Model the fold of this input.
Amino acid sequence: MASDTREQFLDTAEMLFSERGFYGVSIAAIANELGLTKQALLHHFGSKEKLYGEVLKRISDEFAALETDILRDETDPATRLKTYLMRLHTPFARGAAPTRLLMREVLDNKRRADSAGTWYLKPFLERLVRLVRDIPAWQNASRAEAFTMVYQLLGAINYFGISEPTLQGIFGATSYAKIEQAFPSQLDRLIDAVIAAGPRSTA
Amino acid sequence: MASDTREQFLDTAEMLFSERGFYGVSIAAIANELGLTKQALLHHFGSKEKLYGEVLKRISDEFAALETDILRDETDPATRLKTYLMRLHTPFARGAAPTRLLMREVLDNKRRADSAGTWYLKPFLERLVRLVRDIPAWQNASRAEAFTMVYQLLGAINYFGISEPTLQGIFGATSYAKIEQAFPSQLDRLIDAVIAAGPRSTA
DNA sequence: TTACGAACTTACCATTTGGTAAGTCTAAGT
DNA sequence: ACTTAGACTTACCAAATGGTAAGTTCGTAA
Done:
């Protein structure tokens, strides 16, 4: 199939960009991973920036699809939000690569010339805020309050999501295994607590 | 003073590394920022890796000093933890640079050859876990539970801490100002809720 | 059979990278 | 007066970078 190579390039690029960052990976390195030359890559994507953009777009689309699934399967607003967030904890079969890449994007997008102005995270964040404000207890929350709430949860999830190698390095594999095991239930309780608390000290 | 230039190099390097990452900054760029050549930088630090290591070390030391202050000023364990975490929200006069750099370090340290094995975050994290387990309600928490709890809070704080440029880009300056204003009080409540909840569903 | 376009490759290029070598300049110590 | 050492500079260098140009190979459609 023709587009097979393209898809492989996107997979490899996602992995390497997520591990080493945009400037830490050369297009030659990505191509070599597939046994091809960098010009094969340029043939398909035109430039490194465009390749990077397509990788981000693919992730963005996957998150959108994830929300569509949840809106179909769940009806209770609080459950929808919670399900979505819990799913973000171990996002896709590809592991932490999308989480790591999005974290890098938050750190870098302002500086990288070409993709500035293209905010791949925007629809994702707006969907989350919408989910929060569908919850009865949060209906009179301001946009800022709803956003802040969900962004704190997102931070808790994503920060842990990118930390595996570092935490394994610091604490060792066995200690990390315990931490990883403890995380979901603690996250579950955290989300419940935050949702239950509502937007403001009961005024 | 002789070491004045050195300190300026560390300041500039911290800023640029935090903004563009290790691979995104050349030593020539750092030196030019001070009107010097890259060889002046190499004269003081020997290599790019060593410079980067010293920047990290300085940040690590500052966090240690911060804890010392808090241990001196506060006696209640819960207050100590909360004060520490709230201080991390806007860490130093230098703004978000240390937070951004540490986030990059979490993403990168496994891959960068030289600094692998040097875990600048280790003492910082161990101090936090110690603070948690000093709190009466958390005294029978496992290490993993205490760690997971504080790491979630750390994630909420740090993720927001690195997001200013991105969020301004997505939502605009005025919307971001509202979010920034709403954040501390929500964080305050989040920390209280997590501490109060204790390590496990009341068994 | 030929024409064509997609999927590549080898050559090549200017620029930038981190780092070495060999100075120059200046202030302090003896 | 002479030496030494620190703080720098100019001159290099080999390797790697992203990208262009010009093919080659090959399956398919006219």
Remarks:
- Chain A has a mean pLDDT of 92.
